[in-house]
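Researcher: I'd like a candidate sequence for this fold, 715 residues long. If you have to choose between options at a position, lean toward the conservative one.
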């Protein structure tokens, strides 16, 4: 791999990490070791995104809740279990209300303790309701019946392809050997008998249901399907590969006959009425009184499920949307999904495998191409979040796309990428960082880490913004301090200034005693390099002003700094010998920045920038024009400026306006007028004082050819 380019190496490393991650994840997934975690993430998706379906409003519940039990006992002296004749009132109410189908999620496997007449009365009410669905409980282990009872009418349902499907799947999990049937008086009148048995997932949460069961060769629909068939008894049924066909609806099922339920929300999403309110309404109607339930029209053409929600009746189940969910509402959800034709579909295994590999490869490749804590964490975050987003989208589209296997693939990939990175490039990069962190800015180090081939002689032409600074009177300061105190002072000062420069994205070229040399726009491109340099200069001056009182207490005098700023082309790169070199800059623009730092002495200022920098900073800060100067080593004069903060400019605006008028007179050669203006400002403005003295000198020795240029003779 040594002959490969860095980009190809990174790509291969990322691909290897991705393949490792996806392989580990799939090896964990297929034996079922991730199933419990997947189930939890599925429940989270359901709780987050579940919403009512198109048919939800057409399904109502009548619940035998605790209030109903209390009402029967307190108002009527009826303990549990109730006489079955009471349920006849529920049936009568539903018939009068125009209910399309009524399904009872109650088992009447034992004769009524109130006698056979109670069962006959209830059975007569059932027979009078043409679309009543009664309950049967089928099981592998319990139930008195092993054959279809002779006293119970055989179901008329025929399911096309059932025998072939059963033979191909080994009974497919829907054939049961035992069952519990209602007593004959109750069973005889039912239009449909339906299985109410529900099997939870291994973690005891109910997420799936069988739409049909087989006992003794006879088909029993689930309670939800039974309600659908009671309303449409001629609906054709058939099993086709991977699906159960109900009329024009196709329900996706697995090899065990299970369909994944599309829950609509927490308990109560389907409109519910207490059994007590329904019974009271029916009794009031019989007495010619208005019913307790005002909105009886809501029942018209609806499907109604009667079931239990009182805690003591033991029909509360854990579901994805809630830890406590009435079993009857699970049956209602089956019908809701059937009517809306939107059962959840499992994503095919091949698609899941492909997505797992893709997510892992993407994470591996992306990780291999980034460096730095922020970028790395960004990639990690995106890699972790992306499978979540895809799975949420899949849920919204009606698919169960396993999440945990993808997350496992991504997680193992990220870990593998880290190991590969450290074993290959990481050690080299750590060496570079440790070797140069004391000398180069973090930006330069990161550039070298990304491009270690740049550790060689050579440079490039680049437009830079250049910063030169020097402490005023530092020679005399150093003479008055012992070496330890001088070193401490210098380190404190240089640290504070360097921090600001690097915060603004600058690269510190070097220190020369108390002098700082820095630049912007290399090695990293910065379109706003001029603004950054000026802002850094102003922040440095502000920071030094903040430090000045404490320094004065230690050394007995103020510490002030002069700064020169210029922008222009320069050569920047690794300059030196083959064994020792610096990342530095060369060029006329660099020399001018150095000269501008010294020119501050002429005007009593502390920060000067060139016209080139002014143009490139695009009005980011207010300035005042100081002069047109001719410096040593340059043929053409340079227009220079002093940057000001917005606050300072506002305070000094009147004086700055007068200074500009005096400067204009100076440029025209009107030295007397200019002197008069500057004298009025000199007490508050050192630059005005310098101009007043300059004007006196020019009045005493008038120049022959005046061009308005202040000639600087010193470097």
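Model: Candidate sequence:
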């Amino acid at each position: 791999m040594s002959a490969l380019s860095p980009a190809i190496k990174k790509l291969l490393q990322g691909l290897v990490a991705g393949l490792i991650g996806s392989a580990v994840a799939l090896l964990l997934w297929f034996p079922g070791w991730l199933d419990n975690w997947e189930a939890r993430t599925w429940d989270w998706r359901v709780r987050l995104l579940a919403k009512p379906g198109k048919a939800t409003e057409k399904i109502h519940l009548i619940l035998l809740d605790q209030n109903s039990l209390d009402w029967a006992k307190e108002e009527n002296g009826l303990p549990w279990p109730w006489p079955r004749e009471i349920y006849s009132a529920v049936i009568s109410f539903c018939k009068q209300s125009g209910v399309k189908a009524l399904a009872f999620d109650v088992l009447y496997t034992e004769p009524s303790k109130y006698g056979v007449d109670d069962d006959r009365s209830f059975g007569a009410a059932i027979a009078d309701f043409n679309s009543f669905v009664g309950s049967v409980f089928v099981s592998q282990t319990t139930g008195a019946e092993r054959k279809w009872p002779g006293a119970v009418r055989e179901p008329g349902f025929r399911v096309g392809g059932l025998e072939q499907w059963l033979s191909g799947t080994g009974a497919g999990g829907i054939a049961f050997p035992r069952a519990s049937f209602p007593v004959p008086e109750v069973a005889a009148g039912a239009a449909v008998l339906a299985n109410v048995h529900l099997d939870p997932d291994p973690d005891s949460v109910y997420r799936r249901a069988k739409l049909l069961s087989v006992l003794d060769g006879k088909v029993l629909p689930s309670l939800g399907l039974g309600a659908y068939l009671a309303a449409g008894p001629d609906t054709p049924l058939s099993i086709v590969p991977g699906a159960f066909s109900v009329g024009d609806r196709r329900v996706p099922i697995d090899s065990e006959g299970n369909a994944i339920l599309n829950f609509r929300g927490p308990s109560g999403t389907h409109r519910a009425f207490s059994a007590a309110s329904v019974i009271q309404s029916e009794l009031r109607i019989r007495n010619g009184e208005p019913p307790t339930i005002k909105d009886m029209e809501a029942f018209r053409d609806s499907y109604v499920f009667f079931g239990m929600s009182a805690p003591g009746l033991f029909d509360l189940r854990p579901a994805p949307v809630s830890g406590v969910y009435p079993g009857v509402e699970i049956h209602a959800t089956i019908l809701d999904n059937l009517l809306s034709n939107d059962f959840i579909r499992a994503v095919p295994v091949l698609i899941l495998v492909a997505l797992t590999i893709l997510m892992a490869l993407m994470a591996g490749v992306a990780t291999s191409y980034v460096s730095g804590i922020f970028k790395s964490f960004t990639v990690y975050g995106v890699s972790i979040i992306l499978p979540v987003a895809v799975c949420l989208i899949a849920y919204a589209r009606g698919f169960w796309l396993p999440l945990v296997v993808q997350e496992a693939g991504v997680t193992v990939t990220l870990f593998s990428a880290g190991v590969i990175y450290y074993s290959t490039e990481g050690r080299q990069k750590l060496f570079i960082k440790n070797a140069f962190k004391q000398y180069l800015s973090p930006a330069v180090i990161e550039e070298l880490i990304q491009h270690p081939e740049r550790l060689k002689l050579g440079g490039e032409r680049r437009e830079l913004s250049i910063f030169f600074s020097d402490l005023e009177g530092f020679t005399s300061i150093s003479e008055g301090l012992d070496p330890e105190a001088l070193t401490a002072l210098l380190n404190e000062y240089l640290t504070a200034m360097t921090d600001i420069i690097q915060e603004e994205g600058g690269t510190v070229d070097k220190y020369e005693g108390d002098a700082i040399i820095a630049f912007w726009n290399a090695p990293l491109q910065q379109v706003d390099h001029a603004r950054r340099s000026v802002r850094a200069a102003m922040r440095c001056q502000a920071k030094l002003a903040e430090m000045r009182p404490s320094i004065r207490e230690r050394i007995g005098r103020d510490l002030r700094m002069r700064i020169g700023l210029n922008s222009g082309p320069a050569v920047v790169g690794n300059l030196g010998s083959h064994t020792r070199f610096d990342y530095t800059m060369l060029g006329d623009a660099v020399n001018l920045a150095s000269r501008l730092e010294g020119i501050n002495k002429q005007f009593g200022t502390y920060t000067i920038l060139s016209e080139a920098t002014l143009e490139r900073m695009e009005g980011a800060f207010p300035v005042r024009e100081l002069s047109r100067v001719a410096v040593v080593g340059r043929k053409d004069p340079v227009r220079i400026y002093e940057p000001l903060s917005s606050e300072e400019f506002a305070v000094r605006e009147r004086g700055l306006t007068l200074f500009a008028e005096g400067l204009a007179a100076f440029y025209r050669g009107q030295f007397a007028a200019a002197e008069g203006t500057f004298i009025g400002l000199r007490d508050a403005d050192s630059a005005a004082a310098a101009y007043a003295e300059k004007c006196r000198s020019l009045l005493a020795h008038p120049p022959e050819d005046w061009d308005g240029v202040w000639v600087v003779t010193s470097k």
